[in-house]
Sequence to fold (425 residues):
Amino acid sequence: MRRALRLKEYSLLSLLREAWRGNSGWRPAWRKAEPKPAYDVVIVGGGGHGLATAYYLAKEHGITNVAVLEKGWLGGGNVGRNTTIVRSNYLLSENQRFYEWSMKLWEGLSHELNYNVMFSQRGVLNLAHSPAQLDAYARRGNGMRLEGIDAELLSPAQIARLVPGLDVSRNTRFPIVGGLFQPRAGTARHDAVAWGYARAADRRGVDIIEHCEVTGFLIESGRVVGVRTTRGEIRAGKVGVAVAGSTSEVLRRASITDLPIETHVLQAFVSEGLKPWLDTVVTYGAGHFYISQSDKGGLVFGGDIDGYNSYAQRGNLPIVEDVAEIALTMFPGLARVRLLRSWGGIMDMTMDGSPIITTGPLPGLYLNAGWCYGGFKATPASGWCFAWTIAKDEAHALNAPFTLDRFCHGAVIDERGAGPVPWHH
Fold:
């Protein structure tokens, strides 16, 4: 078995060997598993969080009799529909510790999975457009540094050198007075993250079952003991749900209808390919907008969620107009660049802008939801903490604050740095 695993490793030797024989020896990255009647754990949702959970269940806790159920194909949901930004520049300590743990996992993830997730630590710059906003960024940066997280406050002159195409003149409507920069932040390749976790989980014995939609839950004596799917019933000792914007719809099939979550569309955009021009991630402080340049040369950018509830994976023109206006305000030189494509992901937005990783709300059921713009960057830590919670039936210290009952007790985590939440719309 160990010899077989070694032969499946990606390495310089394997690349040379396959180049010599015309790439005829590559095997599928993961098996097309058929569902078994029962598992120790079933994870509903084959996105980044579900796959990461399955991987860490196997690696960290030795639980390998696990199935990941995905209603479509791997990479077809939110994990493939985002702007790929990774950062840990939060103000509140609960989020700082969680996202910084995620950052540390990101830094070793390609080696961990033996799969290049293309994590590029090019930095994230938050622009400030007023002295009050710069003071708020200074406060956030000081809080980050107290937690051992990298943060630098930049002047307009430093920003001009870092981002040459940015309009830093005093003639703009919202002049740039400074910014907060996290050098270790950056971007990763979204579908590579899904494929890397899928391959690594499969090699540890996890069954990844695509085109298998959950249509209901098996509940006995008030406890969840399995799921009904389009490919038959599957029993399980534990069922974890990590389905992002579909959380309310999926849990409605277990008669759970009172979650503190709303679902909105979040659009993302890619321009035509350009020569290397923007080597960091920049966010606009006078509106909600973020932009970076991909390895292929396209500008990847996004802005606000659409201001109404929807399960559609497509957006609407008002947000297109909004992000285009901000892009040209920041970078006037982009006026003649053409938009190549856009897409929408369905976002599960909690009422305080922070996630939910918890046991319950029924015995045998475990919930991972409410990511409010933070889902992609949280992928490693989310999977790591959710696996811990499922394996031990209790939260790890990192996700202990992210419970459902915080909304009953008033212990909310109102993180404005996480981005808009439903009550802003």
The two ends are 55 Å apart (CA to CA). The mean pLDDT is 92.
